[in-house]
Design brief:
- Helix 1 runs antiparallel to helix 2.
- The protein is 63% helix and 0% strand.
Length: 67
Amino acid sequence: MSWGDLNILGFGVSRAEVTDAMAALAREAAQLIEPVRERSPRTAAYLGRQLGFQAGFNGIADPGHTA
């Protein structure tokens, strides 16, 4: 493994553990975005889209994403 190629799986963490942790963090992020929606719906929608994109890119099926 070289610098710039850091991968959590290289530290003995299972793919399931990583996926579960990422899904939990994505759900938490979606919950934190919700209060923003009232004052800035466009910002909340943007953040939700970014969260959804990253979840999809990383293979998280249910990130709790709300756009």
